[in-house]
UniProtKB/TrEMBL annotation:
PANTHER family listed in its UniProt record: ALDO/KETO REDUCTASE
InterPro entries, per the entry: AKR, Aldo/ket_reductase_CS, NAD(P)_OxRdtase_dom_sf, NADP_OxRdtase_dom
Limits of the NADP-dependent oxidoreductase domain: 25-109
Entry protein name: NAD(P)-linked oxidoreductase superfamily protein
SUPFAM superfamilies named among the record's database cross-references: NAD(P)-linked oxidoreductase (SSF51430)
Pfam families, per the entry: Aldo_ket_red
One MF annotation (Gene Ontology) recorded for this entry: oxidoreductase activity
Entry-linked Gene3D superfamilies: NADP-dependent oxidoreductase domain
Amino acid sequence: MALEKSPKIPIVMLSSGHTMPVVALGTFDYNFEPQTAKEAVIEAIKAGYRHFDTASVYGSEGAVGEAIAEAVQLGLIGSRTEVFITSKLWCTDNHPNRVLPAIRYSLKYASNIAGL
């Protein structure tokens, strides 16, 4: 994953060889509104953010994916590889028969919306 270093947000090298910005925009909100989240992610990209934190239980994975796809279309970023997305396996899915389906759902949902 080739993340460009933002002049405002430092990055770290992970043991996997990927880089990760050390500051992320969180997308949890008790009164979640997809359009508001999408606009917040786009504005964060304009401000230099390249790391976004989401979770299936937040309901924000789709909005994050849409925002990234729009940011690419607007030329704010060149491609999905310029951002780092953190999601979580929620505790209710932490059972042997639920782990892989939950992870696949998160990856498929965000990827489909981002047009990947």
